[in-house]
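Example record used in the benchmark description.
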Amino acid sequence: MHVNFSIDYNVKLAIGIALAMMVIAPLIIAGSAAAQSILGYEVTEPQPNMFSYINPITTGLTKYPAQSGVNDTTAGMVILLPSYYLPFQYNVSTGQYINIYVWSNQSVTVYLMNNGEYLSFSSGESYNYIGEAGGNVIEKAFYISNGGTYYIVIDNNNQGTAFVLYEITESPSPEGPVFPVGIADYGLAMLQGNLVAYEYSTNMFVGEVTIYNASTVEPNYCPSLENEPGNDWFSVQLNVVMLVQTVNGVNQYYWLQNVLEFNSQGDQFQVLDNVWNDSGSTSVINSALISGNGGVTSSDGSVLYYDWGVEQPESATLPFTIYLVIKTGLSSNGYPWAAFGYSLNGQSTTWYDNVTIKIPSSYVDIVVTPPNPLSSKYVPFNDAELVIAGPWSSECTVANTLGVELGLYFKYGSYLVPIPYMWNFGMHTAESIFNASSISVGPGMVFVRNGYEEPAYLTSYFALLTIHNGLNGISNTSILTPGTLIKVNEPSTITFNNGTRYVFYGYVINGSELVSNASLNVAINGSTNIDIEWIKQYLINVTSPVPILVNGSVVSTYNGWVDAYSTLTLDAPAYYVLNNKTRLAFQYFYVINYEPYYTINYPYNISFTINSPMSFTAIYARQYLVNVVSTVPIYINNTAYTNYTDWVNEGSTLTVSIPRYYQLNNQTRYLFNGNTTTIILTVNSPEELTINQWTRQYLVNITSQYPLTINGTVTMQYTNWLNQGTTVTVRPSITFIDGLLLQEPGYIITVNEPININIKWTVNWALTAMLYSAIVIAIALTTLLVRRSRNKPRLN
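Model output (structure tokens):
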């Protein structure tokens, strides 16, 4: 079988299960029963500070799976980041089944694909599949109708990170999971759905076994391909890992097994021990470097291991209790040793084998650490297991009836401590059992019975306390013993210099219970989430020269704290009258936003979402009433007005332009008599301006055929604009034209309307006659005189 762990390095998502662990010593421990003693050691409750906690991501499970298996069985653990998947390739014969079991802390999907479908899937293209199943717990058997190459893919297509336990087997008929069943500590735990990783070491483990009833038999087929059909023996195995540090600084790992073999029909038992080299892929033990009651033998003719057993079966009476013990240490000459023993009375121990490894060493201990596929170990598990399985040689068995209580303890100082974190299956042994399930019955204690097998994490003795402070977003995670009393105190208000503060709202316990007191005292009896919730507020300043509405309240100034992201409504009056000729006119709100800093102008009626400290200033302009009255239209700032009435901002300039003339029609107009036609008015108070220096003028048009005198001027055409009421004098005139005396009588005209006069000349016959009579007389006199002069005597 080829197994490939696929990593998509283009996925950049946070790992959601890494915990920052802080171990808090218990203040108050819940009452417990009277102290129990095993093998002369007092049994005490586990404490969180007995373990070192580490980030599970550092174990390498996000890069590769940690797995084990024999022949047609593969089992393992892996951490799948969001959008990551784990593929397995199988060459399967026609008529076979591929059985898969998955347990995860969140839903995942399992696909069965052929080669082409997997190629499309792994390339990110659209894909099909032969079969699929999804969920937190998956048990699925895929029938293979055509032999060939197939892929089983475990896909985490969710947003969260998934811890996945899996087992895949090939079989001629559908089958469920087949693990050794009991109690195990893998250095991993699930607390409130979070994966916790830890490690510890000890020099002794004790497995407590009480068999109440048992009836087992080996089936005709085992996934390991090893079986003795009808065999009614089964085993209870205490499996641990011993770490040896040589004087040369080399770490060596040895898998130690103390095994109870029990005949379920004859009520007989025997014990044996094994020592396996887990340090490297060769897994070889040199017989020259190991001593004990037993010797080095081979497994499948290739792997050498140490083996010894008390071969003579002994009778047992149900219920039957036995304590399996493994202890380690260094000899006086610096050689690591492992002692194997058992006790039938729980007081004295029969040490039936002591195995010494003749390698000078500086340290030896039994270790429990999280599985790490990046290590050089042959088997990536440093776990402790007390499990029920087939009797030997990778064989399986079936539980027809079963009632066995198991307890797993490690030595801490002068005490025995039940393991606090419990899984219900083993992975570090090749034997297995069908139709068995394990349930927790106390700290480090399980009861194994026949029934549906569902390998999973059982429970934790400890409680996970997570305190999340919404003020800084920091979560402190603590592991506590049940009954621990914690005290949390928070100030009622935390104020920062930047106009931001947080007001304590309350403690929310497990998402529902609200405690509003700033001081919290609570006993932690189970995994608990405490959210410290705050109300974020910003300092808001509102100033205005006139009363305005702030969230419906009339104020002139407002300086207060407002909840973040709440709505602040400001409503300013458009005008505020000071007296009948002076008022304040709203211009805009000058808004200063401090985070980030900016300013902006807003209209008089706004609703603003408060997302930082802010300052609002209502800007008003003082205005004065300006009245300009004129008989005729004038221009104010280039706009024509007859009567101008308006409110003008203080300091504004009005330019009043007055036309010199204003034409009413073609023959009537107004004349402005003022000294200037432009008035510059700076408004600093109410203004009243009347422009009344106007004179009505009319067009006077006098025409004459002959010259005459009009207002002292001799003219034949008189055209002029004259003020209303002006007198026009046309003097009487006589003119001699064409032998006639023509005259006009003269006029005195008061101008109250337009005047158009065409002077009429008439013949003055009397004067003409008199003129001509005079002429005749003159001629006659002249003639007479001439004649007289001719008749006078000449004088010589």
